[in-house]
């Protein structure tokens, strides 16, 4: 789970984005207990305060919750996770099509390029 950071964006925001991807991709499953702040900060090589700030933001978005004395858990609200996944996928798709438009390709041609890519 090592991350590469962009010096132009606050680290906690980058950690937050990575964590959202881990949640929507199923790395951390609904209802699953998350590692401690200390474990996360060691794994990601960030200050525990930075990690705590990112986790607090996830909690304010209702993507995780805290059980007193038991730690933090991923929300069990699968609809919320799916909504976040849809939003993220839409953002990625729009970015792709905008980039293709800048080089003079329309949607149909852009889709042909996608279909020609091997995973």
Can you put this structure into words, describing what you see?
This protein is mainly alpha-helical and 119 residues long. It folds into 2 domains: 11-78, Orthogonal Bundle (Arc Repressor Mutant, subunit A); 87-115. 59% of the residues lie in helices and 7% in strands. It is built from 5 helices and 2 strands; from the N terminus they run αααββαα. A two-stranded antiparallel sheet has the order 1-2. The longest helix has 25 residues, at 78-102. It is elongated and about 55 Å long. The chain starts with 10 loop residues before the first helix and ends with a helix.
The radius of gyration computed from the alpha-carbon positions, rounded to a whole number of angstroms, is: 17 Å
Number of strands: 2
Order of helices and strands: HHHEEHH
What fraction, in percent, of the residue positions are helical? 55-70%
CATH superfamily of the largest domain: Winged helix-like DNA-binding domain superfamily/Winged helix DNA-binding domain
- SS element count, helices: 5
Q: What ranges have pLDDT less than 50 throughout 5 or more consecutive residues?
A: none
What does the secondary structure layout of this molecule look like, with pairings?
Blueprint: H1 11-25, H2 37-44, H3 48-60, E1 64-67, E2 71-74, H4 78-102, H5 107-115
């Amino acid at each position: 789970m090592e991350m590469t950071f962009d010096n132009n964006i606050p680290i906690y925001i980058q950690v937050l984005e990575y964590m959202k991807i881990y949640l929507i991709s199923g790395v951390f499953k609904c209802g699953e207990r998350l590692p401690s702040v200390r474990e996360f900060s060691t794994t990601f090589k960030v200050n525990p305060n930075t990690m705590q700030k990112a986790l607090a933001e996830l909690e304010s978005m209702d993507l995780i919750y805290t059980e007193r004395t038991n730690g933090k858990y991923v929300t069990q609200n699968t609809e919320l996770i799916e909504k976040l996944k849809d939003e993220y996928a839409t953002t990625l798709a729009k970015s792709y099509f905008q980039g293709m438009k800048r080089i003079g390709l329309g949607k149909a041609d852009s889709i042909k390029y996608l279909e020609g890519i091997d995973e």
